Amino acid sequence: MAYQGGYYQDPNQPYYGGGYPPQPGYNPNYPPQQPGGYPPQPGYPQPGYPQPGYPQPGYPQDPSYPGGFNPGYPPQPGFAQPAPPNMPTGYGTGYDPETGSVKGFEFNDQSIRRGFIRKVYSILTAQLLVTLGFITLFLYHRPTQLWVQNHQEMFWIALGVMIVTLISMACCGSVRRKAPMNFIFLTLFTLAQAFLLGVSSARFSSQEVMLAVGITAAVCLGLTLFAFQTKWDFTVMGGVLFVAVLILMLFGLLAIFIPGKTMTLVYASAGALIFSIYLVYDTQLMMGGEHKYSISPEEYIFAALNLYLDIVNIFLYILTIIGATRD
C-alpha cells in the first residue's frame, strides 16, 4: 500500500484517480500519534474543556438567572450587566447589596443632586425651627427657666443623650442610613441639642440672643450662596480643618486657665471663623458635582447633621462674642 495525495492507495483496488478516498473517522496510523495526544486544533475545544470558573471571559451571563444578575460571575468585557435587585436607580458603581450604600459615588444626574439637596435642607430646616422654638421658650417663659434651674439633672441628661446619639450616628452607618432608626436618633439628638442651647441662651439677655440669631442667619445664608457658586474646591481641606479644630480645642483649654475678655474674644472669633469654613466644606460635600469629594445620597441624615452642627457652633461663638463685648 503506497501513500499518495494525502491518503493511502491500494494498487489492487480500481478507482478513478487511483485509490479510494479516506473514509470519515478512518486514520491508518497517519500522521504518527504524538505523545499526549494530538495537538489542539484551532477553533476546537481544548483538553479539559470547560475550564474552572465557567463561563469563560467574554461569555455572556445567563439571562435566566433571577433578576438577571449573578454576583458569582465577574462582569464580562463588552457585556452590559443588569443592575442588582432593589438597587436605587441612577447610582454609580460600587453598590454594596448588604448595606444598601454606594461607595465612591459621584453625582451624574442633576435630578438626583437636586432631590438630595432638597431632602437635606428640609431636614435641616426642621431642626433649626425646633431649636429656635426651644431658645424662644427659655428666653421668654419664666416658669420654664425656673423649672430648669430647680432641675439641674436635666442638663446632664440632655448632654448624655446628645453625646450618645451623635457618636452612634457618626460611627454606625446602619444607624444613620436605615429608616426609621435614623430619624429616631436624629430627633433625639436635635431635642437634646435644642434643650442645651436653650439653657445656654438663658444666661444672656433676649436682645443679645436675637442679635446672635440674626447674625448667624445672615452669615450662614451668605456662606451657603458662596459655596454653591464659587469655583474653589473646599472639599480638599478636610485635613487642614481637622487640625484647626484640634488647635482650637487646645486653645480653649488654655483660655480656661487664663480668663479674660481679650482671650474670650480671640477664642470665639477663631471658632466662628473655623466653623464658617466648615459650613462651606460640608455644603460642597453635599453638592458633589465637579468637587473632588462628595457624600453619597444615602447619607442625607449625615449631611443634615454636619450642617446643623456647623450652624450651632457658629451661633454659639457669635453669641459669645456679643456677650463679651457687652459685658
TrEMBL record:
Residues 1-95 are annotated as: Disordered. It is a multi-pass membrane protein. The keyword Zinc does not apply. It holds the Pfam family Bax1-I. Its main location: membrane. It is found in: Membrane. It comes from the Eukaryota. GO terms for cellular component: membrane. Residues 21-60, 72-87 have a biased composition (Pro residues). Keywords: Membrane, Transmembrane, Transmembrane helix. Residues 1-15 have a biased composition (Low complexity). The keyword Membrane applies. The chain crosses the membrane at residues 120-142, 154-171, 183-203, 209-228, 240-258, 264-281, 301-324. Belongs to the BI1 family. This is Nmda receptor glutamate-binding chain. It comes from Anopheles sinensis.
